[in-house]
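Researcher: Please translate sequence to structure tokens.
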Amino acid sequence: MERKIRVLIAKPGLDGHDRGAKVIARALRDAGFEVIYTGIRRTPAEIAETALQEDVDVLGISILSGAHLELIPLVIQELKARGLEPGRDLIVVVGGIIPEEDIPKLKKIGVAEVFLPGTSMFEIVEFIKNNVGEKVVA
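Model: Translation complete:
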């Protein structure tokens, strides 16, 4: 049985700038995904718990604060503490202002892709469609 791809868009830490996250959430919804938005200033534990409770296929983390190397590993740790393995149970993608040299570090801990400013909505949608399991559809 097929179902829509479920995406959680999350804003960890003290970053209060959420326009980009809302634009992405709307674009993914328009592409046929089911989207849950956590709002701003969520803890890694809150994000992981929401991912678990909502049974999402994709966790999209929006981060502009520069704290990506501190917060994203904590989110991954919290996911694993709840039995969710990035790459197996869900994919984790990150969007925002991320220095190029930090992208390999994020991918090493389980981030599937990093989308920088200027990435087209089409590219994000296609990445998700191509990387989520076969029993879900956009």
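Researcher: Any highlights?
Model: DSSP finds five helices and seven strands in the chain.
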